Amino acid sequence: MKTAIATVSISGTLTEKLEAIAAAGFDGVEIFEQDFIAHDGSPREVGRMIRDHGLEISLFQPFRDFECLPEPMRSKAFDRAERKFDIMQELGADLVLICSSVHPASLGGIDRAADDLAELGERARTRGLRVGYEALAWGKNVNDHRDAWEIVRRADHPNIGLILDSFHTLGRGLDPKSIRAIPGEKIFFVQLADAPLIEMDLLYWSRHFRNMPGEGDLPITDFMRAVMAAGYQGPISLEVFNDQFRGNNARMVAQDGYRSLIALMDDVNRAEPGIVADPLDIPARVSVDGVAFVEFAARGEDHEAISALLRSLGFARVGQHRNKQIDLWQQGEVRFVVNADTEGHAAHAWNTRGLCVCDIGLKVPSARDTVARASALGVRTFEQPLGPGELDIPAIRGLHGSVLHFIGDEADLARVWDIEFVATDETAPEQPILRSIDHLAQTMSYEDMLSWTLFYTALFDMQKSPMVDVIDPDGIVRSQVVENAEGALRVTLNGAETHRTLAGEFLTKSFGTAFQHIALQCDDIFETAAALEKIGFDSLPMPENYYADLAARFDLSDVLLGKMQAANILYEEENGAAFFQLYSRSFAGGMFFEIVQRDPRFKGFGSLNAPFRIAAQKRLGRTKGMPQS
Asked: Do strands 592-598 and 28-32 pair parallel, antiparallel, or not at all (unpaired)?
């Protein structure tokens, strides 16, 4: 299976685009005509530059408004095509895309269009070129791949074939099953793009909101199953028009694109085994069994601050690393690692960000298989020198310098705490106050949210929720959840668009994407609040107005409301299922802990309470100064 991407999909000059595309691992590239025209090199030089990057030219595109024109426009269209053929031959490209006409003078008619393509196909044959015809979703006369195929079929020329684009089919709500009836050898090329489901004009939707397969809501897997069932054996390519991608880092977008194609074709092969010729032999999406640990980078006053906070949450310092300045804090099966070492990844994270979450450990069935899948998706592995007696725990680099370690069922990995740590004179409480990690909240810039969503859902067996708006007094934060079916791993992705929001301010202070808060689950929020207060936990104060509003919105007793107000507990309800929240005060420039009591039927994360929580955090920061590490 060969992969390709259109130059229009990423930002930069043509040279920068090609560098990013090659680095991501693609086999080929679609040359978008505008990118070629804007470049200052000759067609021959561009072709040489592409091949020097180890790429092939999969497609030259687009050629517009060709078919069904009256004379003398028809003759001029053929002249234009001949000039494009000249350029293609100098480039070293053999396939051009013709999209269905939107020209107001186009006369329409399937036979007329077929005759035009047949004549063009003969001209292309004499030059050793091929022509692919694509139905634009907004084409004047042809906007359905079934009509485009009928035109190609009637043209009946070996150098004329069909080009299929997932957006043009799925964006119109067409059933892709009809593609299965098209002979595979007559499908010359396949372009892919996903998109969020938004009610808007098709052309505007297409030009601004396409995204990578898996990042949107269209049934891309069904489309590709139909294409592969038809017997298609050509390149799988991306053509993505997206305003964010045009302004984002070219290498990251190209890597996302490659990752999306590998994950998609693996899905297609698993859904219909044998349908993909020479499929990649990679492990399936990883089922995560839970969070094994969260690691903080901390030194000096930072170290004292996070240690005191963990103790106030009921955690005990149960272990000290044999070789490094690393403490292990535990309560039940929840483990926090506080790393004060002066070398390695944690040291680099502390030098850059100060007190921060620098590493996440996940429980998985097989750590080796997890890394193998990640590597196939273009994710880099992570390694650092091992000391005496230390385990080689498989790990990868996530986006923006993040690191994930995997604790699998392989020999000794699950015993890392006994092997690498020496017990202290403290022991974890027999009756833990907090029993598990409910979710992790990751803050990032809004334009990076699609990348993070794809990273999690392509690697792990996780699904994404619809995006919601979280109202901050100073702006809006976009929020989306990725989680597995069992709820063993839940991550809320919060995209900040302005530094004025609490999330945006934290993002600025942390110098990039970082985990901003950790939610811990308890069985009884009131018993937990009382127990934590006794050991010095400071909760986030909530205003009286909040509880007055709760009384109006929910059927809660005065006694229950009084208990919530006394302990600063927040409440939300979903179809009779209750969700209680309690927050720590902020530290380290905006990090905080959350404690929740979740009815299993409640699937949300307290988004209705977020504006009030954010206002309380900002108010406390203004009146007392944000506590710093």
From this structure: unpaired
Question: How do residues 299-330 score in pLDDT, each as one tens digit?
Answer: 999 999 999 999 999 999 999 999 999 999 99
Residue 299: closest CA among 350, 361, 245: 350
Q: CA-to-CA distance for 262 and 457, rounded, in angstroms?
A: 12
User: Before 62, cis peptide (omega within 30)?
Assistant: yes
Q: What tokens were used for 30?
A: 């679609």
Q: What single DSSP character describes residue 302?
A: H
Count other Cβ atoms within 10 Å, centred on residue 272: 15
Which of these CATH numbers, 3.40.50.1000, 3.40.980.10, 3.40.50.1820, 3.20.20.150, describes 3-271? 3.20.20.150
DSSP of 573-621 = EETTEEEEEEEBPPBTTTBEEEEEEE-TT-----TTTHHHHHHHHHHHH
The backbone torsions φ and ψ at residue 529, rounded to the nearest 5 degrees and listed phi first, read: -60, -40
- The residues, any chain, with a CB within 8 Å of residue 414's CB and separated by 6 or more, are 407, 408
Examine the pLDDT at 629 and tell me if it is beyond 70.
no
* Domain 436-624 listed as CATH 3.10.180.10: yes
Under 8 Å between Cβ of 335 and 329:
yes
Q: How many CA atoms lie within 13 A of 456 on its CB side?
A: 24
What are the extents of the domains in the chain? 3-271, 290-423, 436-624
Say whether pLDDT at 627 is over 80: no
CATH class entry, domain 290-423: alpha beta
